[in-house]
Here is the input.
Amino acid sequence: MTKFDNLLLELATICAAGIILNIIGVVIAKEFYLPVYLDSIGTIFISALGGYVPGIAVGFFTNLIGYFFDAEELYYGMVSVLLAVLTAFLAIRGYYEKFPKVLWVIPATVLLTSVNGTIIEDMLSLASSFESLNNLPKIWEHFLNHFSTELPDKTLAIAIAFIGLKFVPPDIKENFKWMGKMQAPVSDEMRRAINADNKFIFSLRTKLVFSLMLITLVVAVFISAISYFTYQESIIEDRQRIADGIVSMVVNEINPKRVDEFLEKGYQAEGYKEVERELYKIRASNSDIKFIYVYKIMEDGCHVVFDLDTPAVEASEPGSIEDFDETFIPLLPDLLAGKPIKPIINNDKYGNLLTIYKPVYDSMGHCVCYAGIDFSMEILHDYGRMFIAKVIALFSGAVILIFVLVLALIENNIILPVNTMAYCARNFAYDSEAAREKNIQLMKSLDIRTHDEIENLYSAFLKTTSDSMHYFENLKRSKIQLAVMDELAHKDALTGLKNKTAYAEYTAKLDADIFKERAEFAIIMIDVNFLKRVNDTYGHEYGNTYLINAGKLAASVFGADKVYRIGGDEFVVALSGKELAGCEKLVAELRGLIEKLQADENLQPWEKVSAAVGVAYFDERFDETAEDVFKRADKDMYKNKLAMKATRRD
Here is the structure.
């Protein structure tokens, strides 16, 4: 057997063990009439022990098996899959190692399963999906019901899994960590170094994950769309059959010989009201019937024979003439000729309706009028949304399982081998023979056995170590040069502070945060006063000194890394996150220092820095970009400048 075959066998064995644990838990809960499910013990245990892939597989296949006993179990597979993801995530970070930390797992797990259980329950219920979603108390009631059930269930399951993990030998736990890896285990030092050095935005992992996500999404959307439209067509055909049968009943109630008399006399005609009552009975037989009417189609319009009142629309009087609806203009030749027309689905002010016209013929085969029915198609959208909800609930767990499985294969067969080889290359040293030999042994100890191009690359890598070291040395020097150039490109030559280019890049990040609805920042505008006076009176050299002193003053208050010089006499300070709490205090401090400098008669004019200061905070109601905040800060600065000029005595 190959290493890959062994991996599949190990994975199948682990999953089977986890599923058996889940089944045993369910049997015990039912046998002893416990108020819990205990159907996730295996999922939690295997996820904490083996990670994402086996945990998700156990959760998904447990619900898949449960489908044969309860069809709705399959829809709740998503809850089990997310439970496995959360458990593996927390276990990797050590939350299942010590008792105090595992206590934090319980509320997180209960909250996750309760929220998802509530969502899926509402998705699977047509009434809940489209009525109670706007009824927060009802949703809250559903959530509390789930929470009250999930709390004891998940607490007990987590406790059992936590105790069970204590009896697993450390070497088995370590084997689980390296299950599926196509090379020898690497040291903790190498793993930390790999994670620390993985700074590429568009790394191979990112590209492969993005491609996998894109392909999965496209396939899922494509299949769902085909299924949806096929389902929708079948629903439409079914509604058309029902509506056609109803309109045939209307036709049977109309006596062709008396149509003209009904048109002329209306309610005064003998038998008119009796026919109208029968039409009302037909409409009452199906709640989806919105309108029933009988028209005689003539060139000047639709002559009303019968028209039934509704709570929303008052009926037209017999003999009155209705204008042709725009939808029927292309069909007028057929209607005037008394020919049958195809059903029409139209969405207008009366709603989404299926309209069916059926001709009423006399004994000679001539069309004397048309019986019409408007049949509600709102249920079509409800069924459509219900169908999509079920597809999402049904396939989301499977999609996540496939995605994580493929991602694990990519990680173990490509990413990890490539990163460990890169680590060895980066840390190869030529200082001494012993150092070279140590590095060669480290490379050989990787023992990469993927049986594909990666293994070929590994073999070639061992032979070309010396050349690759030279390449990485050159790359290192290039990176240093690029870093120096980048620093120069972002630094103001006069003050040494950040320049306008750096500010533009920072505001681009702020704009991205605004787009993601997580922005929280303030912009302080500082405009230096009297620069022209200093330049004209003492010369540009002292004017430059004046600007440098202004920059130092701002940096002393806000920190040099927060201050940008964006113009000749303009500085900007950007604060975000926790820094906002002290923003007003810092602005007040800066203004106080400026006032203090102005009052100090011992200073030279170029040392008595004067500046107007304005501040503005990001407000999602008004600001779409960081530029909007900047403009408001600029206005606030201008107000301050006017105030300062109003109080000047020089």
In short: Residues 126-133, 646-650 have pLDDT under 50 and may be disordered.
